[in-house]
C-alpha cells in the first residue's frame, strides 16, 4: 500500500492543482456534493448518479484522470472524517453515500470498466471505509445493471448497501440515519446551511453544449 501511495502521489493529491481543476469539471458532469454528517457522525456524500453525462466523461477525461479524481475523492472524505474526529474527540473513519439513480440510462454501462477500477481501489487501499451506501430512486433497469456490477463488489460491502424504492418511504428511511438539517430538501430534509439551499446539489446547465449528449440512450 505504501508503494501504491507513492506511485500515485496520494499524500499530496489534495493540493495537486491539475486534479483540483479536473474535480471541478467532474462535479459538473456528475452532480454531487459533500453534505454534512449522519447521526453516527459519518461524513455524508450525495451524488446524482442518474444524471451522469456519460459521453462527456468519456470525451473529457482519460481513464487515468478519472482514477486520480477518485483517489482525490477518497482522500478528501477521509480527511473530513479525521477533522470531524478531532472536533468530536472520538474516532470516525467511515463515510455514508447517497447515490440518486433518478434518470439513469443504459448508457451508464459505458463507464462500468472505470467503476470496476474504482471498486478495486476501494477494496484494496481504502478497506472498510464505506459505512453505508443508499441507492435511491432506482429505475426499472436497476436490477439488470446491478446484475453486472454485483460481481465486482466485495461481500462485506454488499451488506452495507441499501436500495430504497421510489416513493415517500425514501425520506422516512434516510431520516432514520441522517438528521433533517443535514439532508437536502429533495430527500425530505431541511438543510439551510448550503449557499444554494434548498437546491443543495447543483446541476450544471449543459443545454448550451449538448452535441455529444444527443447520442446518449
UniProtKB/TrEMBL annotation:
Residues 22-195 form the CRAL-TRIO domain. CDD domains: SEC14. InterPro entries: CRAL-TRIO_dom (IPR001251), CRAL-TRIO_dom_sf (IPR036865), PI/PC_transfer (IPR051026). This is CRAL-TRIO domain-containing protein. It comes from Rotaria sordida.
